[in-house]
Each structure stands twice: as C-alpha cells, then as structure tokens.
Design brief:
3-stranded mixed sheet, 2 helices, 101 residues, alpha+beta
Length: 101
C-alpha cells in the first residue's frame, strides 16, 4: 500500500499547502493495480478540490478486516452534508455544479 500511496502523492494534483499521510500501509495485495489506483486518485482529488482550509490534509489508510480489506481516504475539508451522503454513491451523480459537464 505504501508504494500505491506514494504513487498517488506523486501525481502532483495538489498545491504546495498540502499534507499527505499514509497510515497502516502493511497490506500486500495482488489485484488490478490501475483500478485501485484510480479509486484512490479520484478520492484524493475530491478531497483536495473541495477542501476549504488553508492547509489541505489528506490521509490514506488500509486495514485487513479479516474477510475483506478496508481502504479509506480522510481529509480536513467540510465533509458531505447528511442529506447528500447517500447520493454520492449513485452512478454519475455529482453534488457540485463545477463537476457537471
């Protein structure tokens, strides 16, 4: 996971006022790398794009839960309102006007 997290960090999708953390990077997975990387990149890009703080902080972590692996991306941004939390899992759904084509 550490090399994957470093690859995400190295994409330079962020500004200079950015802190990137990788936590619990002990997993060794055999999977389609590009798929996992794309998901992490999308989550990190959104975390940075919608952050309203002067200093962006984004953390990627992974945990072996037993029957599955749990990945998370956390940030210090404003978060998603309770009424929109279910909507973000709808296919092709966007919350911000800037994300619409």
């Amino acid at each position: 996971m550490l090399s994957l997290a470093n690859e995400v960090k190295g994409l330079k999708t962020h500004t200079d006022d950015f802190t990137f953390e990788s936590i619990n990077h002990s997993l060794e997975l055999y999977t389609v790398r590009s798929v996992v990387l794309q998901v992490l990149v999308n989550l990190c890009n959104n975390a940075i794009k919608y952050n309203d703080k002067q200093q962006d902080i984004v953390s990627i972590s992974d945990v072996d839960v037993g029957s599955f692996y749990s990945f998370s991306v956390a940030d210090n941004g404003p978060g998603i309102s309770n009424e929109n939390q279910a909507k973000i899992f709808e296919l092709f759904s966007t919350l911000g006007v800037n994300d619409r084509f």
